[in-house]
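Continuing the series of single-chain predictions for the mutant panel. This is the parent chain; the variants come on the following pages.
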Amino acid sequence: MLLVADSGSTKADWTFVGENGLMQKISTKGINPVFHDKAFILDELKHQFANQVQPDSVNNVFYYGSGCWDQERKMVVQDALSQLFTVARFNIKHDLEGAARATCGDQPGIACILGTGSNSCLFDGSQVVDNVTNLGFLLGDEGSGTHLGKALIRAYFYREMPADLQDELDQHFPGGKTDILNNIYRSAAPNVYLASLAQIVAKHDDHEYIRQMVKKSFSEFLNRHVCKYEGFRDLPIHFVGSIAFHFGEILEELLRKRSLTLGKIIRRPIDALVAFHIQQQAV
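Parent structure:
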């Protein structure tokens, strides 16, 4: 059995493909070896997969994950998975490679992730050839859910947003500053909490102040990442992730104003990755 997985920090998609082509799809909480150790990952997956899959039937695992940018972090994930899928061969890759494969296919392009966090890469049609460093949610993650969450909190508590919007948002923060700071500074996954606030941004995306907030965040991402790649004016620029998917109209507007080429915008890359690996096995 083949297993293809794509995991961000918030959600993970797992597709099991049997020899007869039948698929079983499971969604779990996200895994990120920057925040999660082997024991946490193993316990989480044992709980999520209980009575749903036959681990010993899985012989090939292709995993694309957030935080898997070097061998040390890849091994955290592989060590956990190998205790669950004991007879499998593993191929652990960064989620950027998954985003590039799902959107660019075998053509050159720029692949971007705008989800809980953000990232980007230059893809030559077969491999990632350049990546502007991602500094994480504390220092970077421009254009992401965490970036929007931080912008929303600052605007609300610094009283920078219009009064009508301020009044509407009161209902979202009943615990005030104390609850929010506890969720950030005393949480095991503050990035996930911050990204969850992007749902509030999305709920009020018809308000001009919110639209400008999103445009500013996306513009920072384009300026600091996309526009640093060689040939960015001529290559299609693809996007993966819930933030990109929901605010696709704004992305389209910003790229059009810069005379840049918008490629695909997909919420989750898992289906394209599954199709790719099924095709590879058939070759």
